[in-house]
Amino acid sequence: MSTLEEHIDISVPLHTAWECLHRTETYPRFVDGVREARTEGELTHLDVDAGGRSQGLDIRITDRDQDNLITWRTTSGPELAGTFSLLLIDGEHTRLQVRFEYEPGTVTEAFGGPKGFAQAAAIERGVRSDLQQFKELVEAER
Q1: Which helix (H) or strand (E) element contains residue 85?
Q2: Element counts in the chain: helices (H) and strands (E)
Q3: Which domain of life is it from (predicted)?
Q4: Domain limits of the chain?
Q5: Residue 50 CB partners (closer than 8 Å, separation 6+)
Q6: Is the distance from CB of 138 to CB of 11 less than 8 angstroms?
Q7: How many C-beta neighbours within 10 Å does residue 135 have?
């Protein structure tokens, strides 16, 4: 299993970032490749376009409000998992840390695209881009 960790500092209070992460319908606005996101019972369903392929993914999301931590894991499609962790910097600034876990071969099979180092670099660029888009979204909505 490969793991990628990234973070970004956001100029909003922690509770504002936390609320945005919980609005499933906003995922297409900051997660590249997600066309639609909706809650279906205890799962979140994502319609995703990645590597020229369309696919539906079901994700189980668990949050621990006291720890400002959201964990997620796919229940259908490729095996993917991760966490979003919010850390208080001060009253007006928050750090969003992301941890993304994936099996490189599974990602290639499910979505196509490069292999090896090129795949890791592409995933890293994608996560960084998603973080930047989240920052812009949540700061603009403030």
Answers
A1: strand 80-90
A2: 4, 7
A3: Bacteria
A4: 2-141
A5: 33, 110, 111, 112, 113
A6: no
A7: 19
- The DSSP 8-state label assigned to residue 75 in this structure reads S
Q: Which one is the CATH code of 2-141: 3.30.530.20, 2.130.10.10, 3.30.420.40, 2.40.50.100? A: 3.30.530.20
The phi and psi torsions of 33 (rounded to 5 degrees) equal 90, -15
Using DSSP's 3-state secondary structure scheme, residue 7 falls into strand
Q: For the segment 94-107, what is each residue's pLDDT rounded down to a tens digit? A: 999 999 998 877 76
Q: How far apart are CA 39 and CA 60, in angstroms?
A: 10
Amino acid at 71: T
**AA identity, residue 139:** E
